[in-house]
Each structure stands twice: as structure tokens, then as C-alpha cells.
Structure of Protein kinase domain-containing protein:
Amino acid sequence: MVFFSMFCCAKGSNGKGKEKPTWRTFSLKELHSATNNFNYDNKLGEGGFGSVYWGQLWDGSQIAVKRLKVWSDKAEMQFGVEVEILARVRHKNLLSLRGYCAEGQERLIVYDYMPNLSLLSHLHGQHSAECLLDWDRRMNIAIGSAEGIVYLHNQATPHVIHRDIKASNVLLDSDFQARVADFGFAKFIPDGATHVTTRVKGTLGYLAPEYAMLGKASEGCDVYSFGILLLELVSGKRPVEKISSTAKRTVVQWALPLTCDGKFNEIADPRLNGKFVEEELKRVVLVALVCAQTRPEKRPTIMEVVELLKGNLKEKLIAIENDEMFRTLYAPVTQSQSGDHDNSSHISEENEIEEVQQHK
Ligand SMILES: Nc1ncnc2c1ncn2[C@@H]1O[C@H](COP(=O)(O)OP(=O)(O)OP(=O)(O)O)[C@@H](O)[C@H]1O
Ligand SMILES: [Mg+2]
């Protein structure tokens, strides 16, 4: 029983002396009653490993319940990993665990409900027409989610690689503060190791090429995905767009030539109506593009990303601005184009991902 051995370990790390546990177990009956028997109307969405339902407990507090859909050894492992990691991590920009339920074949994870749902819902989903994300909120979300990842990479013990940074995994609380969610894909990095080789998991459009092709997961992969997320956040574009019946374009391929030409204003989400701080926009775009570059050794650390986004590390920002990647002349994008940010790596990513999703 993978889950229970992991759980014991998590409980040990949680239950220091008389400290009050921050999470508890829930009965299936309690969760049935909180979610109106997992009613379809309560469903917040569905991911690779199950559905998420809104619920309300007897004390009036609102919860989100993730119900794993298929029972398998893989799901057991997923559940164990997520519960153990979530039980350990506490940070203002990470979604906290409220508890779990393991009864019979059912495995459920209980979180705080995030009333402003996910970044995805504001950029491309049910809230996208409401334009609730003004520039200040976007900057806050960028910095806050980066700080959450800094905690995972540098402060959690042992360090954690998230491996699935994307817009649906950045949730927004009642003040639109970012909470990075979903540590189910996370993997502990042993001390001293530079990367762990693993089967590729993740989401189309966000995967670092070295991870998609060689299975090398490192902090740099999260930085790459975060770069894509930043571009999505400022532009309102999806990570990959269909530009014709045969061709696709990544958000990097779209934004890089505009950046080389200094046309930052054209990158800004039209829903901002021109209301943004130009200097900040430029900073975010430059940082996003250095994060999402093919060569992992050239990417900044997430700690540097936080400082850069805050407007610190001015010299580093100037060096980034003068980087050769922003001086390359770009031909119009076609599917066969090659280069540092070429399509070929992304096409490989897509192939990998399609394969992975079939395994889900
Ligand atoms: N605590 C929460 N509060 C509000 N909405 C949530 C909460 N947890 C998850 N959601 C939303 O529920 C939906 C399903 O989440 P889930 O994590 O299962 O899938 P996903 O993020 O789309 O994909 P993946 O399985 O790859 O993580 C998402 O839209 C997510 O933003
Ligand atoms: Mg998720």
C-alpha cells in the first residue's frame, strides 16, 4: 500500500509535539453530503486524474473535492504523492490541503475552495468575457505564483519540482492572490541531484523540450512552463494556437519576433484596453522568453525570476535585453521552420503528450 506508507511519513512530519494538525481525514458520508452526492451541478471541472466538485461543510466553509476517477496502482501512487506533498507545504501562494478521504475504492482530496477559480477560467474560460484581470492583478499573480514555486524549489524539504505548471493549476483566492495547485505530478529531488529522469507527464504547450524528449525533469522545466504561463497571462493567448488547418504556432513563436522588433504593446492582451505599465509589460515579456528558451542552462532560476519581475536585478535585465536571442531576425512562422525556438521541439512535445494522454 504505497499510499499508507507515504501517509504515515507525512503525518510524522506534520504532527510535531502538541502542534494542531492543519488537516484531517473526512468520511465519505461527510463529503457526499457536502457536495450534494457529487452532483453534476457542483462540478468545477475535470482533469487527467478525476473530477473536482464544490462543496460546503456543516460549518458553512467551502471546499473543493478532487475525486480520483479510476482506481489503479498508478492512481494510488498519485494520491499518495499528492497527499504527502500537500501535507508538508505551507505557503501563501500554494493551495493548502484540508484533508483527504480513503474509504473502500474511493480516494478523495479536500482543498480550500478558491472563489475566483483558476487563471485558465479568466484567460480562456467562463470568466474571460468579464475582464476581471487588470494589469495590477496580473502582475500580482505573476509574482505570487513565482514565489509559490520558489518555495517548492528552494524551501520545501526535500525540494519539489511541480512538473505541471499551467493556467488551470494557478487558482485565485477571493483577493485574486495566486495559489499554485496540483502537486500530484511533483517529484522529490534527492539532495545533490541535478535532475531526475522520469516518464513524461504534463500538458501540451508547457513542456520543456529536454523534458518532453529525454524525460529530464529539473527545476528548469518548471521555469520553462512558467515562462509560457507568463506569456499567456500578459497576452491572453493560449500556449499553442492553430493558425491554419495544417499549422500551429506556439505563444513563444508569436511573441519572440514582436519582442525583437520592440513591439511590446502588440503583445498585451487586448482586454487590457491599453491599460498597463509599459515598463512592467516589457519586463514580463523578456523574462518569460528567457524562461521559455530551449536551452535549459540559459534559463534563470525561479528565484531570479521573482526578483526580475519585481524590478530588481536591473543589470541582469539589461543583459537579458541584449541577449542574442532578441537580435535574431525572424522569418514568418511555418511548420517546418527551425531555430532556437523552432516548431520541431514543440511538435515532438505534442507527439509525446498525445501518447501520454492516451495512457491516462
Ligand atoms: N480548490 C479549488 N477551487 C476552485 N477550483 C478548483 C480547485 N481545485 C481545482 N479547481 C478547478 O477544477 C478544475 C479541474 O481541476 P484538475 O486539477 O482536476 O484538472 P486540471 O488542472 O484541468 O488538469 P490536471 O489534471 O492536468 O491538473 C480546474 O479547472 C481547476 O482550476
Ligand atoms: Mg489541476
User: Anything to note?
Assistant: The CA atoms of residues 37 and 169 lie 25 Å apart.
